[in-house]
Amino acid sequence: MEIAASEYADNTAYDELLEPGLSPRPAAKPLFDYLNSLDQAELAARRQAVDATIKAMGITFTVYSEAGNIDRAWPFDPIPRVMARTEWERIQAGLKQRLTALNLFINDLYNEQHIVKDGVFPLEVLAGSGNFRPQCVGVTPRFGVWAHISGTDLVRDRDGTVYVLEDNLRVPSGVSYMLENRQIMKRIFPEVFRTTHILPVDDYPIQLFETLAALSPRPGEHPVIAVLTPGIYNSAYFEHSYLAQQMGAYLVEGSDLIVGSDNVVYMKSISGLQRVDVIYRRIDDGFLDPEVFRPDSALGVRGLMRAWKSGKVGIANAPGAGVADDKVVYAYVPQIIRYYLDQDPILANVPSYLCMLDEQREHVLANLDKLVVKPANESGGYGMLIGPRATAEERAQFAELIRANPRNYMAQPTLDISTAPTLVDGQLAPRHLDLRPFVLQSDRLYATTGGLTRVALNKGSLVVNSSQGGGSKDTWIVQEEDS
Amino acid sequence: MLARAAEKLYWMARNLERAENTARLINSTTHVLLDLPLGASFGWTNLLEIVGLDDLFHQHYSQADEEAIMRFLIEDARNPGSILSCVQYARENTRTLREILPAEIWERTNGMYLYIKENATIACRSRRNRYMVLDNIIEQRHAIVGLISGTMGHDLAYQLVKLGRNIERADMTTRILDIGSAVRFPQDGVLHETLMERIWMSTLNSLSAYQNYRRLVNMHVRRNDVVNFLLCDDRLPRSVVHCLGEMESCLRLMPQSQQLQMSVTELSHRITQGHAERLDAPALHEYMDWLQTELGRINDALTQRYFHAYDNGMPPPASDQAEIEFAEQ
User: Fold this and answer.
1) pLDDT the model gives residue B323
2) Which domain CATH number covers A387?
3) Is position A124 within any domain?
4) What is the mean pLDDT of residues B153-161?
């Protein structure tokens, strides 16, 4: 196993597995001992086996721009990302703290709005939020929880600090790949699981099932759970069917459901109409119910909001939960945690400048070449400006966009996000990555062990989204031998 | 069980069965060819008529030679009945049914698709490759059927798979029975008789029924016995009556299926009492057409009852059905 030393010599970022002298960090040592035992030919053979396995298992994702091509093999790097259990446990506590506070915040926003009245959160931020749903005002879902499933994006900066980059509270995807990545590793590198104590990840489906089951309006009975998908052409369709299979739930499309005059949601089964208790929806708010939101939506179910508001069906994530998944709201999360929990945030927020505030906007406009500017309501890396990499013309265009709609933009310093060794042409080369753990909340609070590591496979690239050329790695939380 | 998913399951099973049957039909036809005496010829276009694809073929091909017909039947995406199309269709359906089917079934179907996609072209190039590739397809399909019966819960979904498999199988048996009409004979009475025996033998072979026939019916291959065996003998898993019996037992476990059960039972009775073996060749051909139409009617009734029951408005909730649904999970 050879390390691409010259690429590492140019790497200024923190490396997850290697110390500056290119010796493995303690948690990664057993992995490197193992990798060093494989010769080049052996490694190449495993690499091929990985590709064949992915093809045979049919692990795919969709790229929107490739019309007609429904599935593409999932790009996977066989070198895992390793983290020590002690470090992970602190992050896990931070994730749980963050989701708890955000759910209290969402419930407050749709009800009394104490946080606004107490002057901690400005009303104008709320007024400008594209994801605030007036149709949800006055509703308190079970347990007061709105975002039952979140997928938080974490990155590590040059000094080793882990930052929260985004709270994905709408329909975060990727957890199926986290589970499948582990399956691939077990098939191709079974030996290493004997020499390293790698914590398992496979309790997620049962935890998700229990999280959803707790939302059933008919407690005590075996709940009928349905995963609502936009259909086979959605980029995450693989995940929708995977999760339905893992939970023994029904995979439904909008046209499979009907809301009766009794406000109960029914599924069109071959035995007649059958009641549905909980819907894990994987379509955006705007498409959920043509009666309330977009009238032209063919993906949703007419009357679904009526059913939810009258307590006849549980919906996860609750409609309107996306209000806290907004890059301007993001800047307030540390205050939100202090306000509701009276605790200091465990996980750091990236310093953020809000363009709606005059002073901060001027700072952003004056430093566009140093900052990353993001639109408030987009996800998946779309519509953002990476200042240092943009042309002067692009920056000038973006300055106009910011001035025209300051509420819609926020800016952050560019982080030198961390790398990990990735197999490139038979060598280990540094590639940038992030980490998306998944957190569940209803009657319980649960965080995955690790999460989905996404890696930018192109040299120097910071874009990890699978829709834009990213791949993924298995994520190992390991018990260190001496602890 | 969702009505939409039920329809996909049913068609997944039909398509996999069809892919296997087409592979069998081609392989056994090739065997007949090798036995044909000089002067006799095989009408490849008749084979297309038997499977009901002659019009479609002529839309796309100007010359009906062996290679063109093989390409059309094995790998042509424009033919929905080609082996590649059937397997691709089944694979797409399996992909959307992963919450119902055991994971290995998806992997196997996916593997079968990848195999045929890679090997279809060499299969069309020579008879030797063709035999090997088609044989592999039959084998892979058997692995899937084995997985279905050995690992899938025997719930409503399972009954739908079985229904699809058996209705397709019955339909193909009626078509394969027609194969004799595809051979053109030289004017020689004696040769004609031995040749006919060969052809009926091949018919039995393509349905893996020759050994059964010898054991259960007769050492000599006689036309009337073969027709009767393939239509009416309940001991043969590919006889029409056996397939209908399987469908009947599936339907008995399906909700609100009395009407459908009756149609299937009635058709089975008519076949048993019809004595089709006494018909002459043209009449037998017409009889097969009639049978195919009847099977089509059962397919339509099934579709209406289970898959498209909601197309015309919303039926009342069936609360007493809830327990059946739980039992099937």
Assistant:
1) 36
2) 3.30.1490.270
3) no
4) 94
